[in-house]
Amino acid sequence: MKKVFFTSAIIILIFSIFSISQFFKNSNFNKYYIISKSEYYNKVYASWLGQIIGNIYGLPHECQYVDEPRPENFGKMSYEKNQLQLMKEVNGSFSDDDTDIEYMYLLQMEKHGIEPSYYQLAEAWQYHVRERVWLANRAAIGAMKIGLTPPLTGAKNRNPHWFQIDPQLVNEIWALTSPGMIEYACDKSAWAAKITNDDWGIEPTIHYAAMYSSAFFEKDIKKLISIGLDHIPENGVFYNTVKEVINIYNKYPEIRDWKKARKELSDKFYINEPEMTKTMWNANLNGACGILALLYGDGDFIKTLDIAAGLGFDADNQTATMSGLLGIIYGLDGLPEKFLFPFKDKMWDKPFNDFYKNVSRYDLPDIKISEMTKKTVEQAEKIIISNGGEIYEEDGEVFYKINRNSNFSPKLEISVEPNPIFQLGVPFKYKLYTSYDNNDVEWEIYSQTLPNGIKFKDGTFFGTPEVTGSFKIGVNLRRGEQEVFKEINLTVFEKNIALEADKIIAYVRKTDTVLRDKMWITVGKKIFSNDVSIINDGIHKGDNSVFYSINDSNKSFVDYYGYEWKNTKLIGNIVFRTGSVEENGGWFKNIEIEYINNKGDWIKLNDGFSISPEFDNSNSALNKSHFVDYLIDFSPINTKGIRITGFAGGGDHWHELSKNSYFTSITELEIYPPLKN
Questions:
Q1: Taking a C-beta distance cutoff of 8 angstroms, is the pair 385, 160 a contact?
Q2: Quick one: which H or E segment has residue 463?
Q3: Once rounded to an integer, what is the mean pLDDT over residues 239-265?
Q4: What is the mean pLDDT of residues 374-379?
Q5: CA dihedral 366, 368, 374, 379 (to 10 degrees)
Q6: I need a surface site. Which of 42, 46, 286, 598 has the fewest CB within 10 A?
Q7: Where are the domains of the chain?
Q8: CA distance 73 to 76
């Protein structure tokens, strides 16, 4: 009997313990994180300082080590002379693209609220980001200048650099202001990353956001990496990459073997990367380097910094981001004094003299680092409160009670192409872009009838047009209490008569591939065609779709593309679809229209023409967009030949193999009869 009673008591006790543990697991005790304001401030301050250290230290190593890693430098690490000189000149730290856009985002949160819209951030990009921007960031700026808004500015069909590193270095601020709110930090970072990137190109950014947000309450590096994995698509590109990096590290766990690990990483994620995404700036590649640096550094700031720089590729970004992460983990006391006070004469009494000098962005104010930290804390407090958290005082100290289960819901927005253009009898699919997945919102069409042959479902127009004309269609989008309206203009032309051309004409008919391959080219070679004949093959994107008029000229020249026919054609519209833009060329500085008159001479269009979107006549790569569809409209003419012409863009470039280069790019040139409504 005693035995039965004892056994029953044990069972009851176990059940009680289990019930209590489940209670705590499912109660508010598990729902919230608690951190003091002073501790949070210290960690944010150290993160900003860590990012500044990593950025300034890493700059000289940016893109310097591709084929081979940099020699390790443990114990000998210091800023290079140029960086020291600039710090001395500004009497503090200075900005670069690893911190300055974060700072810009922080100011936008102050201006517009903790959850600014895509439109508001795009305005900030266009105003403040006027130089010192590359790859996906530059492509997004160019897209904004022709009227596109995010997320279309980062979409794969618009931004050829959607897979590059860009969002990994500008989005830490979203996690820095949402401590312990991992889902919120990840979703907000993913949303912001779509300004410039798409698909798996945003996955490292999400992983970093999870680590940053978690690091306020978790110090173990391997656990942070694992938490990051929990918040990116399972078996997605970067998920599998992180798993592989861990395997490589486990194969060579001793820090002396980091170069062996680097060799395997490089082979897998660079050497054998598919050609279209094989660049030293690839997001997946550089994300892998960041994770490997964390593993070998094992929480040691100096080792992490050195390995991140030594692994190479776009190294300054890894040095900045991982140093900022360690700043969160260990606070100010975890940062090496020699990097905070780099001058032997002890000219500063605060880290970096508590000064952040803006040298990279238009009209961003200089600021004390302590003030930047204060502003970050202020925004975080608003985010904590708005997501069910609390700020309270206990024993004279302020604490944050943080709701771990917070979720980010962006403002509802629609982004559309400037000129959706289709052909009579040709099947098409045209997707509208929103700040949500298209099937997570309610769509409604405001139009008496859609043009015959055109249908609409879940934010996508599709079908085979049966009538020509220009059609204004109102689209209403709803999600919960949010609602937004957008008017879409769809244009349907008759058959593209370029397909009937007897002759394709161009100033440069064959790309000088030897010269091209020596240039600083940022897109995969598979995109290129060497023959101008691709301009009327009906293919707008993908392999062999872009022609570069690269030749041996070292000065700007008059370039042109067009067609001739044996029989006279009535022409009223041209659609010029541009190709990809490089830093050193790939655009027209101006556009003119010429046609063959009844005497057989090429003459300029006297009556003028309209072009939409508005054409930029500058010679700046920053103002040019990739894959623009320019609709050129003019009074109808009868002619046997027509062409677009203008001076090829380009010029001086910092890369020695790309100096003084000028060329244009094109994917398609379509010619249409006058539009009939």
A1: no
A2: strand 460-463
A3: 97
A4: 98
A5: 20
A6: 598
A7: 28-403, 414-493, 497-672
A8: 5
Q: pLDDT, tens digit, for every residue of 453-507? A: 999 999 999 999 999 999 999 999 999 999 999 999 999 999 999 999 999 999 9
Please write the tens of the pLDDT for every residue from 389-436: 999 999 999 999 999 999 999 999 999 888 799 999 999 999 999 999
> Quick one: pLDDT at residue 22?
40
* pLDDT tens for each residue of 585-619: 999 999 999 999 999 999 999 888 999 999 999 99
Model confidence at 26, in pLDDT bands (50, 70, 90)? very low
Task: For residues 642 and 596, give the distance between their C-alpha atoms in angstroms, rounded to a whole number.
Answer: 6
**HSE, side-chain direction, 13 A CA sphere, residue 147:** 12
Contact 190, 167 (CB under 8 A): no
Distance CA 258, CA 294 (A): 12
Q: Which residues pair with 444 in a beta bridge?
A: 476
Read off the tokens for 516. 């091209």
User: Residue 23: its pLDDT value, please?
Assistant: 37
Q: Are strands 93-94 and 356-357 parallel, antiparallel or unpaired?
A: parallel
Q: What is the pLDDT of residue 14?
A: 43
pLDDT of residue 660: 65
Q: What is the 3-state secondary structure (H, E, C) of 151-201?
A: CHHHCCCCCCCCCECHHHHCCHHHHHCCCCCHHHHHHHHHHHHCCCCCHHH
Q: Hunting for tokens 């266009």 — which residue is that?
A: 126
Ordered alpha helix ranges (H), 217-365:
221-229, 237-251, 258-266, 283-297, 301-310, 315-330, 337-340
Reference 380, options 93, 35, 122; nearest CA is 35
Pairing relation of β-strands 558-577 and 610-612?
unpaired
CB 470 within 8 A of CB 422: no
From the number of C-beta atoms within 10 Å of its C-beta (0-12, 13-18, 19+), residue 16 rates as: exposed
Please tell me what DSSP assigns to residue 80. -
- The yes/no answer on whether domain 497-672 falls in CATH 2.60.120.260 is yes
Classify domain 414-493 at the CATH class level: mainly beta
The residue behind tokens 């990367």 is 273
Give the count of beta carbons closer than 10 Å to the beta carbon of residue 489. Answer: 15
N residues, the chain? 677
What pTM was computed for the model?
Answer: 0.93
Output helix, strand, coil percentages for the chain, rounded to the nearest 5.
40, 25, 35
Residues 6+ apart with CB under 8 A from 117: 410, 411, 413
CA triple 9-13-16, angle to 5 deg:
140
Contacts of 425 (CB under 8 A, 6+ apart): 464, 465, 466, 495
What tokens does 414 get? 């629609």
Please give the mean pLDDT across all residues of the chain. 92
Q: State how beta strands 528-529 and 546-548 pair.
A: parallel
- Residues sharing a CB contact under 8 Å with residue 430, sequence separation 6 or more, in sequence order: 417, 420, 422, 460, 461, 462, 490
Segments in 435-538 forming alpha helices (H) = 513-518
Question: Peptide bond before 167: cis, by omega within 30 degrees of 0?
Answer: no
Q: At what angle do helices 237-251 and 203-214 cross, to 10 degrees?
A: 70
Rg (the chain; Cα; Å): 28
**In which residue are the tokens 């059940």 written?**
15
Task: Identify which of 351, 37, 397 has the alpha carbon closest to the alpha carbon of residue 216.
Answer: 37
Which amino acid is present at 632? I
Superfamily for the 28-403 domain: ADP-ribosylation/Crystallin J1 (1.10.4080.10)
Q: How far apart are the C-alpha atoms of 631 and 641, rounded to whole Å?
A: 18
